[in-house]
Amino acid sequence: MNAEAGDEQPRPTNRRLFFALWPDAAVRTQIVRATREPVRLSGGGRPVPKDRLHVTVAFLGGLTEAGLEVARSVPPIAVGPFDLALDRLGVFANGGVLWLGPSTVPAALVELERKLWNDLEEHGFMREERIYQPHVTLARRARPVEAELPALQWHVTELALVESLPDGRNVHYEVLETWRL
To answer: What are the chain's domains?
Structure first.
């Protein structure tokens, strides 16, 4: 954003927030390199920029400042660090989303998602109805791709609270806070 001093855009009244596993630069680079060809083969899908790659754990939607403070009060969730092997490509048919995820979801991630939502529900948040399927979105408007890729190993150590901010026709993600697992 190119704003003069004191000319910053005000934050929206309802802030779009989610909890996520936020990879470091080395893991992001691995993901981009390993999936470059599948993304290309996905039929002209719109690739997700490298700086937006993440695994959502709990999508909260639009929150007021008070809601944000309540969400911030929920972590930390003590499950300990864990390894996540990203080794499976898929496409969500309803949105044409090409994704990379684990063939086997680590028990610690299952526990993290369950405990986080249990705590969020105690504070009045509504859990999404769909079954949790951890994944990294690689491209939108994509077609299914058959491709072999090596398992990408990610040592997950933190949970992040992230805000989705409008950025022209796209979005920009800003990590607001992180907690050690």
So the answer is: 15-180 (3.90.1140.10)
Element (H, E) at 75: none
**pTM as predicted:** 0.89
pLDDT at 61 exceeding the cut of 50: yes
- What torsion, rounded to 10 degrees, do the Cα atoms 127, 143, 93, 136 define? -10
Catalytic residue among 123, 135, 155, 172: 135
Q: Read off the pLDDT of residues 73-111 as tens digits, 9 standing for 90 and up.
A: 999 999 999 999 999 999 997 878 999 999 999 999 999
Per this entry, what is the length of the chain?
Answer: 181
pLDDT at 12 over 80: no
The pLDDT assigned to 13 comes to 64
DSSP one-letter code for 103: S
Tell me, yes or no, if 123 is annotated catalytic.
Answer: no
Q: Rounded to 5 degrees, what angle do the CA atoms 137, 160, 26 make?
A: 60
- Torsion over CA: 84, 88, 94, 98 (sign): positive
Beta strands in the chain (DSSP E): 15-21, 46-47, 55-63, 82-86, 88-92, 97-101, 136-140, 152-156, 158-167, 170-180
69 is written with which tokens?
Answer: 């403070």
